[in-house]
Amino acid sequence: MRPAWSTILLAIVIIPGISAAADFQLTSPTIKNKGTIGKSHVFNGFGCSGDNVSPELRWTNAPKGTKSFAVTVYDPDAPTGSGWWHWIIFNISPDTTTLPADAGKLNNANTPQGSMQSMTDFGQPGYGGPCPPSGHKPHHYIFTVFALKVDQLPLKPEASGAMVGYYLNQNALAKATFTGLYNRK
To answer: Is this prediction's pTM over 0.85?
Structure first.
């Protein structure tokens, strides 16, 4: 009978921690999960004519022990063989639960103080919206917020998406995602 009680006790201790991490959520008032991304968030260049405004993002129920946040936007459908990094911002204060619209513009009052935006696959830091090749099926744009166990990542603005991704995954307590869709006719 002791093993059964041990299992029950272990379940009582572990399950609350798992459910707390499972409650971590990311949303946007302008992009619904699996919804179409509007023109205001689409890139302006490469043949696209959007406004290139990063969407407002909100997250709730970060796990205890979170010391900073990071946000990424990634397109796994880009015809590069390695996807496409559209936005990478990290070293966001643990008190932050919202990124206002246009926080992805460099040197903007909407960008959280002390945060860092690193290189995207557009060759520059800051938000770069969707702009898939014409005629492609809708691409999936994965918006992710990472709750991190460190105050800051030891990276410079020149860091690539892959390098930042490595550090994010090594230091993540939890992450929350949603996916927006976009295609050019």
So the answer is: yes
Tens digits of residue pLDDT in 51-63 = 999 999 999 999 9
Contact 41, 54 (CB under 8 A): yes
pLDDT for 81: 92
Domain map of the chain by residue range?
Answer: 25-182
Low-confidence ranges of the chain (pLDDT < 70): 1-22
Q: State the Cα–Cα distance between residues 178 and 103, nearest whole angstrom.
A: 18
Task: Please state, in angstroms and rounded to a whole number, the distance separating the CA atoms of residues 23 and 45.
Answer: 37
CA dist., res. 88 & res. 125, Å (int): 8
The CA distance from 18 to 31, in Å, is 27
Q: What is the pLDDT of residue 77?
A: 97
Assigned CATH for 25-182:
3.90.280.10
Which amino acid, one-letter code, is at 170?
Q
List the beta strands (DSSP E) in the chain. Answer: 25-27, 44-45, 48-49, 57-60, 68-75, 84-92, 98-99, 116-117, 139-148, 172-182
Output the pLDDT for position 185.
Answer: 79
57 touches 98 (CB < 8 A): yes
Helix, strand, or coil (residue 173): strand
Residue 130, token pair as written in the block = 């969707």
Distance (Å, rounded) from C-alpha 117 to C-alpha 85? 12
